[in-house]
Amino acid sequence: MTAFVTLAGVYNTPVLTGERSREQDLMTSRALEQFLASVEKRAFKIAQLGLRNDDDALDAVQDAMMKLVQSYASRASEEWRPLFYRILTNRIRDLQRRRTVRGRVMAWLPIREGEDDEEFDPIAQAPSPEANPARRLEIDEAIGALEAALRDLPPRQQQAFLLRNFEGLDVSETAGAMGCSEGSVKTHYFRALESLRARLGEVI
Amino acid sequence: MSQEPTEFEKRSRALLEESNGRLDGRIQSRLTRAHHAALDQSQKPARAPWWRWSVPAGAAAAAVLAVVIWVGHPPVVEAPLKSVDDFELLTDADAPDFVDDGEDVEFYEWAAGEMES
Questions:
Q1: Phi-psi group of A179: left, alpha or beta (phi > 0 → left; psi -120 to 50 → alpha; rest → beta)
Q2: B24–A36 C-beta distance less than 8 A
Q3: Separation between Cα atoms, residue A1 and residue B100, nearest integer Å
Q4: Residues in B touching A58 (Cβ below 8 Å)
Q5: Do B26 and A44 touch (CB under 8 A)?
Q6: How many CB atoms lie within 10 A of CB B42?
Q7: To the nearest whole angstrom, how far is the Cα of A54 from the nearest Cα of chain B?
Q8: Do A64 and B34 form a contact (C-beta atoms < 8 A)?
Q9: Do residues A161 and A193 lie in contact, with contact meaning Cβ atoms separated by under 8 Å?
Q10: B38 with A58: CB under 8 angstroms?
Q11: How many Å apart are CA A23 and CA A15, to the nearest integer?
Q12: Quick one: which of A165, A162, A156 has its CA closest to A183?
């Protein structure tokens, strides 16, 4: 944002209202692009852990981005992060509920194994040459254990942990994103931490 | 976070960051497309709210309806009586009954022709 404030300061000469408006739109658009680029990976990881499905997670992230741009682009940029995560957590919750209902209705159908299997991508699956194999294996195991433990957390604890610890929101912003009180955030976070520590204390 | 994060919190965060850094190209590409799609949407002109166009549309529909009703049932305009003589003729009890005496129509046509000549 600093770059845009500086850019705005350069234009000291009077400009027509239309030009100023276009300039403002351009600045907002650039700021939004930077913001979305900065949150997209973390947002995907949060959605992926909550939904356990890459495609659903991508849809949730895209919906949240669309909604933010459509409805809140004119808000101050400091408000975008908690608003974006508020939209995303609501979307994840909607999809979780829909999936629960669909699961109840479709419970009698046989499970089709491998339906969502992705095509094998040798480049994506190739090991990185940077870390040594033993160290890499250790990290892989730790990541796998952590993500499995996170997936097993109750949704609100999972959200509180990811928003606070991973995304780095403070208690107030997390409460805004989760639509609950700061006290609830602290409780959910504390319980999540205790649960993860009890399960992973030896592993990570 | 207000308190200094514990070792466990730091470690779990580092692992999540590491996992995030390993997102495959397909996911990364779709995320980039998603945020560009969101931004493209903001460039498009906003659609006018429904009530902006519903009022003129309603007025136009009402006008069309009024025209249809008027054309279907044109107002009945009664022809004014040409003169007081015509009025007296019609109300005169002794006047010949033009409607009922259909058989005398030829006589009246001949009489009218004689008077004109």
A1: left
A2: no
A3: 100
A4: 27, 30-31, 34
A5: no
A6: 17
A7: 8
A8: no
A9: yes
A10: no
A11: 10
A12: A156
ipTM: 0.74
Per-residue pLDDT tens digits for A157-178:
999 999 999 999 999 999 999 9
The amino acid at residue B20 is: N
**Chain A, 106-135: which have a CB under 8 Å from a chain B CB?**
118, 121, 123-124, 128
pLDDT digits (tens, 9 = 90+) for A32-89: 999 999 999 999 999 999 999 999 999 999 999 999 999 999 999 999 999 999 999 9
Q: Would you call B15 and A204 a contact, using CB atoms and an 8 Å cutoff? A: yes
At A198, phi and psi to the nearest 5?
A: -65, -35
Residue type, B17: E
Inter-chain residue contact B31 with A41, CB threshold 8 Å: yes
Rounded Cα distance, A32 and A89, in Å: 20
Contact A192, A161 (CB under 8 A): yes
pTM for the predicted model, two decimal places: 0.64
Distance between CA atoms of residues A38 and B32, nearest Å = 11
* DSSP state for residue B13 in the 8-state scheme: H
If one counts every other C-beta atom within 10 angstroms of the C-beta of residue A200, the result is 19
**Which is nearest to A68 in space by CA: B37, B27, B49, B29?**
B37
Residues of B in contact with A24 (CB under 8 A): none
CA distance, residue B24 to nearest chain A CA (Å): 5
Single-letter residue type at A176: G
